[in-house]
Specification:
single chain, about 425 residues, alpha/beta, FAD/NAD(P)-binding domain, 3 domains, eight-stranded mixed beta sheet, 22 strands
C-alpha cells in the first residue's frame, strides 16, 4: 500500500538530516525523517540534549526511528522496513543524509573480539556498555580518534596509548590552520598523561579468546601494548548506497551535488558526509541548504553559500592531512581475513583483477554487510572500483517484507513526534 505523499522525506537523523528537516518544515512543508536509530541525533549526538534536536522537535517534522530504506520500487517511492512491518513512502523531494561509517584496515588479529571501531565503541558505551577500568588503545587516522579517546577517558577507561598514523608535521599543520585549535587544545588537555604517538599504527592484535595486546610500529621501533580493547579506525567512508540506488552520480566515492545540494537526479538532494567527509559543521550548513532548496526557498538557501565554501576548504585540508600512508597496504599477511562476513582471506582475493571477479569466485562482499567493510579495504589495497549496489540495501527478514502496512500502521509502530 502506498501511503499519502510527503513534501520532503529526509533519510538520516544526524546533523545534516536534522538541519534539512528543520529548514523544510519551518518553511511549511510536510516532512518525515527516517533513521535506523530509535531516537534522532545520529552517531554524533546520540543520547544528547542538543539544541538542533530541540529545534527539530519543535519544527513540526515527523520522526520515524528504528526503520531503514531498503529499495526504491519506482521513482518517487521508497520501500521502508520498520520493526515488524514494511511500507511505501511517496515523496515530492528527497534529502539523503545517510552519514558515514568507519574505515577499517585489516591486519593479523583485527577480527578478535575487543578489536572494534573507535566510533563503534563510543556507540556501545553511550548505550550502557561498561568501560570503567578497562585498558584501551586508540589507533588509526583522523581527528575523531582524539575525540573518542577523550570520551573513553570520561567514562573511566585507562588509556594506554593513542596511535595516529599521520606524521606529526601534517597533523600540527592541520590543527593550526583548521579553525579547531581551541577544541584540539581542550581535548589534549584532558589527555595530557596519555602517550600520543604520531606516525604510529597497529601491525598485529594478539590474544586467545579476545584481544589481550596490540603490537604498534613507529618508524623502525615496534612494541606491544597490553589492552582490553583496541579502538581502531582509519577515518570515515561516505554512506552512498541509497544515493546510488536512486541513480545519483558519484565523484571520487562521494555524491555529486550542485550549488543547491541537488544531486544529478531531479528532486533528490544530498547533505553531509555522503558528499565527502567534512565534519559536523559542513554537514549542518549543507543540511540547511538542502532543506531550504527542497522546500523551494532558494533565496534563503543562498545565505549559507559563503559559510559552506569555508567548510569545503576545511574538508580539503582534512582529507589531505589524514590521507592513509602506503605502509598500511603491507599490514595483512596472506592468511589475514579481509571479508569478515564470508571469512575470505587475502590470499584468495589477491589473484583477482577486479571486485566483480573476486565476488564471483570467493564470495568477498556477498555477506550481510554487502561489502560495506571489505569494499573500502580492497579499494585501498588494490585500487578496485566497488560499484555493486542492489536491493534490499540491508538484510531484511522475510516476515517484515510480507507484513505490509499502511501509513497509520507505520505511525503506530515506528513514529515518534519530532
Amino acid at each position: 500500500m502506498i501511503e499519502s505523499r510527503w513534501d520532503v522525506v529526509v533519510v538520516g537523523a544526524g546533523p545534516a538530516g536534522l538541519a534539512a528537516a528543520c529548514m523544510a518544515a519551518e518553511a511549511g512543508r510536510r516532512v518525515v525523517v527516517l533513521d535506523e536509530n530509535p531516537q534522532p541525533g545520529g552517531q554524533i549526538w546520540r543520547g544528547e540534549d542538543h539544541h538542533w534536536i530541540r529545534r527539530f522537535s519543535a519544527s513540526g517534522s515527523t520522526f520515524r526511528g528504528a526503520c531503514t530504506v531498503v529499495d526504491q520500487p519506482e521513482p518517487g517511492v521508497l520501500h521502508v522496513v520498520g520493526r515488524n512491518i514494511s511500507y511505501h513512502l511517496r515523496f515530492k523531494r528527497l534529502v539523503i543524509a545517510t552519514g558515514a561509517r568507519e574505515r577499517f584496515m585489516p591486519f593479523p588479529g583485527w577480527t578478535l573480539p575487543g578489536v572494534v571501531g573507535a566510533g563503534g565503541l563510543q556507540a556501545l558505551v553511550k548505550s550502557g556498555w561498561p568501560l570503567a577500568g578497562k585498558r584501551v588503545v586508540v589507533a588509526g587516522a583522523g581527528p575523531l580518534l582524539l575525540q573518542a579517546a577523550a570520551f573513553f577517558r570520561s567514562r573511566g577507561a585507562r588509556l594506554t596509548c593513542l596511535a595516529e598514523q599521520t606524521p606529526l608535521r601534517r597533523g600540527l599543520s592541520f590543527a593550526l590552520r583548521s579553525g579547531k585549535r581551541l577544541q584540539a587544545i581542550a581535548l589534549l588537555g584532558r589527555l595530557c598523561d596519555v602517550p600520543y604517538r604520531w606516525s604510529c599504527w597497529p601491525v598485529r592484535a594478539s590474544g586467545q579468546e579476545r584481544v589481550e595486546s596490540v603490537t604498534l610500529r613507529q618508524g623502525d621501533r615496534m612494541w606491544t601494548e597490553p589492552c582490553d580493547y583496541l579502538a581502531c579506525s582509519f577515518g570515515l567512508v561516505p554512506n552512498t548506497e541509497l544515493a546510488q540506488l536512486v541513480g545519483c552520480e558519484l565523484v571520487d566515492g562521494a555524491v555529486r551535488v550542485d550549488e543547491q545540494q541537488e544531486t544529478t537526479v531531479s528532486g533528490v538532494y544530498c547533505a553531509g558526509e555522503p558528499t565527502g567527509i567534512g565534519g559536523v559543521d559542513l554537514a549542518l550548513i549543507q543540511g540547511q541548504i538542502a532543506g531550504c532548496s527542497a522546500a523551494g526557498s532558494l533565496q534563503r538557501a543562498s545565505a549559507f553559500f559563503e559559510q559552506r565554501a569555508r567548510w569545503i576548504e576545511f574538508r580539503a585540508r582534512l582529507q589531505a592531512a589524514f590521507a592513509l600512508r602506503q605502509e598500511l597496504r603491507q599490514l595483512p599477511d596472506p592468511e589475514t581475513v579481509v571479508c569478515r562476513c564470508e571469512d575470505v582471506p587475502l590470499k584468495e582475493i589477491r589473484p583477482h583483477s577486479c571486485w566483480r571477479s573476486a565476488k564471483l569466485q570467493t564470495r568477498c562482499g556477498m555477506g550481510p554487510c554487502q561489502g560495506r567493510i571489505c569494499g573500502p579495504i580492497v579499494e585501498f589495497l588494490f585500487g578496485w572500483k566497488v560499484d555493486s549496489v542492489r536491493p534490499p540495501l540491508t538484510p531484511v527478514r522475510l516476515e517484515q517484507l510480507v507484513n505490509r502496512g499502511s501509513a497509520a500502521t507505520a505511525d503506530r509502530h515506528d513514529s515518534h513526534p519530532g
